[in-house]
Design the sequence.
């Protein structure tokens, strides 16, 4: 599973699970971010590699929801905000391997992320 975005290219050899996909990413994220992303993706690690886009979106959505709920906007949350951005980016890079589903996946992702502030009021 690999994907290109503009001039950037994330390459991953043939792997069978979400965890193996993440471990095989090249270029690898910087060390601190890599550790945080690995922890966030750990609950999804044994899912089939085809689940990478949803696993990344789920993990990113969960973390963003936690940040919004806590009101955390200080510099201390910078790594988590970067992790959310990275997860969403990886989700769409991986999803690019199935272009027929890309529009529907983007609509679902935008709806889920846009609904997060409303879920805090509930």
Sequence:
């Amino acid at each position: 599973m690999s994907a290109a975005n503009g001039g950037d290219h994330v390459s991953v050899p043939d792997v069978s699970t979400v965890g193996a996909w993440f471990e095989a990413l090249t270029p690898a994220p910087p060390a601190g971010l890599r550790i945080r992303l690995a922890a966030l993706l750990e609950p999804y690690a044994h899912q089939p590699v085809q689940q990478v886009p949803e696993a990344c979106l789920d993990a990113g959505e969960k973390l963003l929801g936690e940040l919004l709920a806590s009101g955390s906007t200080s510099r201390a949350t910078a790594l988590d905000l970067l992790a959310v951005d990275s997860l969403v980016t990886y989700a769409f890079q991986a999803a690019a391997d199935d272009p027929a589903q890309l529009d529907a996946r983007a609509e679902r992702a935008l709806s889920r992320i846009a609904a997060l502030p409303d879920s805090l009021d509930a």
